[in-house]
Write a structure and sequence with these properties.
Length: 222
């Protein structure tokens, strides 16, 4: 008779419990209505649960979300580490989506460090992959990042060009798939806001007011 030992790292019940804990702490860390110091602690707890030896799609996705949280919490050193770790995992797994996500995290790091040229370079690398994969939700998000950097660089025309491209994709996604994730309508709201701001910076107040009127007809979103 053979006895088979069960490694806790491969035990499905343990793995499911770990993943549930990660999700719980990531949800708390991503809640902008909570105290920032607590959000930082919860994000670190989620990170501590990651098992990098697995390098599966869920581990890489969770690491990406942790990186986004660190970006929103202005923890730039940790964001840079997350980008590097995700890049390493994506190379080992030969996963293009994770590669694109790592480019996005790197781009966010450079953007917050005001290294706009490096940020745009990373964002466009991510955009190229998202287009290839037809990952349209990710594409909408990266276009928003590109437009933000263009705005920071005072390229208001370029920023609006990117935002108008994004509007088409958002509206197409809404027509085809609705907004089950509750993200597209807020994206639409933010795009209109950014377009109005860019027009105002270009002294095109007529167009700015036009988009502000569109905003007034939309429900308030976070």
């Amino acid at each position: 008779m053979f006895l088979v030992s069960c490694d806790p790292k491969t035990n499905p019940a343990v793995s499911d419990s770990r993943n549930d804990s990660i999700k719980k702490y990531l949800d708390l860390a991503g809640d902008v209505n909570l105290d920032n110091e607590k959000r930082k602690r919860w994000n670190d707890i989620a990170y501590s649960f990651l098992d990098f030896t697995k390098n599966d799609s869920l581990i890489r996705r969770n690491l990406y979300v942790i990186g986004i949280n660190n970006a929103n919490l202005t923890r730039f050193d940790r964001l840079r580490e997350n980008a590097r770790d995700l890049s390493d995992l994506s190379i080992k797994s030969n996963n293009e989506k994770s590669t694109a996500d790592s480019y996005k995290l790197r781009g966010l790091y450079f953007m917050y460090k005001s290294e706009n040229e490096k940020a745009v370079e990373c964002f466009y690398k991510a955009k190229k992959i998202f287009l290839k994969l037809k990952a349209y939700r990710r594409l909408i998000a990266i276009n928003k990042d590109i437009a933000q950097v263009q705005n920071f660089s005072n390229d208001f025309l370029g920023s609006n060009k990117t935002l108008f491209e994004n509007l088409k994709k958002i509206k197409k996604e809404l027509e085809l798939n609705g907004d089950s994730s509750k993200t597209l309508n807020p994206d639409l709201f933010r795009n209109y806001t950014a377009i109005a701001s860019n027009f105002a910076s270009l002294n095109d107040y007529r167009s700015s007011i036009l988009f502000e009127k569109r905003l007034s007809n939309m429900p308030i979103t976070n």
